Amino acid sequence: MKRKISRKLLLALLVLAGVALIFAGCARDEQEIAIGVAGAHSGDLASYGIPSVNAAQLVVDMWNENGGVMGRQVRLIVEDDVCQPEVAVNTAAKLVGDGVVGVIGHICSGATRAALGTYVDSEIPVISPSSTSPSLTQDGQHPNFFRTIASDDAQARLQVDFVINELGLSRVAVLHDQGDYGRGLAEFARDFINEESGIDVVMFDGVTPGAVDYSAVINRVAQSNAEVVIYGGYHPEASRLVGQMRDRGMETLFVSGDGVMDDTFIRVAGAAAEGVYATSPMDTSTNPVAVNAAERHRARYGDEPGAFFLNAYAATQALLNAINVAESTAYADVTAALRNSTVETPLGPISFDERGDATGVGFSMYQVQNGSYVELGN
Question: Which of 68, 87, 107, 377 has its CA 20 to 30 A from that of 162?
Fold first, then answer.
């Protein structure tokens, strides 16, 4: 005999089923560990941000395949800040709202600085693979911030020593893109040069990011009789500066930093890129962990890893290792584990000092030779 279910009873059953599904979903979410990855994933600087997403995913996959962290699976939440401070603030709020317990990123120093206040207030540790502004770890305002790259004062010191001792030059023009990273790097270079006798900063100036024509500033470089330009900024502006300098027949040498040490710069600048110097993290590609990471990247994504890939890989390893060592996702436990434990990474064994800077990392000088960056002897 068939029994009819009243419409009210059917509706009640459907509501109860929905509530059960919601609670089941919440239970699943509580079992996962959510990690944010923030950076430029679109636009001109995506070539810096996307490798960090790939690196984080590879590390997370490796942990998940081996049972996860504390027996829980790890889930990445990826947010694009296009390296813009005002966007980064919203990105940080979104990640906090999504319940992340740590963040890999941001990529650019200005975006990182803008976002850190939100993470500090929410007690979320942040590990950047590429934000090099010294003040991020020196001003005491960001106890939750860590990085797997050396800071700009070390980078600028290497640039200045190279210009003076290796290239033997004495007339230097220092340019920057007016951003946190670029101007900071340029100011350190200028100050280091001013400490040297017989070496002159013949020009210190900013350029307009995104401009098409840099002829005015290039004219001033030419009039200054500078032998070399030290540039603080990113590859879009650097490629136009170098290209326009070479178009007018200028042979002034060009030295920059890790914001330019990217294959996109070579591709965009073309023949003008040849001979350009840039500081960037030391090449650790022969490290066994780095070899394995690169092989996994090629197998998964079909191409070579990009800029800051190894630094982001190390950052993700460090964060997950800290959670595992602490057996906790609580802020105090994770940050203590970051400072008190060592993890094997593609950069070598690293830990973090009280300021959040990684031990054992540094910069090398590279030069574009035959269309590729080559690390020069230290």
Answer: 107
Q: Are residues 143 and 157 in the same domain?
A: no
Handedness of CA 347, 177, 119, 98 (dihedral sign): negative
How many C-alpha atoms does 79 have within 13 Å on its Cβ side? 26
What percent of the residues of the chain are helix, what percent strand, and what percent coil, each to the nearest 5? 50, 20, 35
Q: Any bridge partners for residue 200, and if so which?
A: 171
- Structural contact between residues 172 and 228, judged by C-beta atoms closer than 8 angstroms: yes
Within-domain flag for 140: yes
Place of tokens 């590390």: 59
Domain count, the chain: 2
Burial (CB count within 10 angstroms: exposed 0-12, middle 13-18, buried 19+), residue 187: middle
Give all strands (DSSP E) within the chain, no chain letters: 33-39, 74-80, 102-104, 126-128, 145-147, 171-176, 200-206, 228-232, 253-256, 277-281, 343-345, 348-350, 363-369, 372-375
Contact criterion met (CB below 8 Å) for 150 and 363: yes
Q: Could you tell me the CATH number of the domain that includes residue 317?
A: 3.40.50.2300
Full residue range of the structural domain in which residue 348 is found: 29-149+285-361
The 10 Å Cβ neighbour count of residue 300 is: 12
The pTM of this model reads: 0.85
Task: Please name the residues in contact with 8: beta carbons below 8 A apart, sequence gap of 6 or more.
Answer: none
Per-run averaged pLDDT (10 residues), the chain, 378 residues:
39 40 42 97 95 98 98 98 97 98 97 97 98 91 96 96 97 96 96 94 97 97 98 97 98 97 95 98 95 98 96 98 98 97 96 94 96 89
Report DSSP state, residue 368: E
Q: In sequence order, what are the beta bridge partners of 146?
A: 127
DSSP alpha helix (H) spans, 276-370 = 288-301, 309-326, 331-340
173 close to 230: Cβ distance less than 8 angstroms: yes
Contacts of 101 (CB under 8 A, 6+ apart): 33, 34, 35, 124, 323, 329, 334
Same domain, 141 and 289: yes
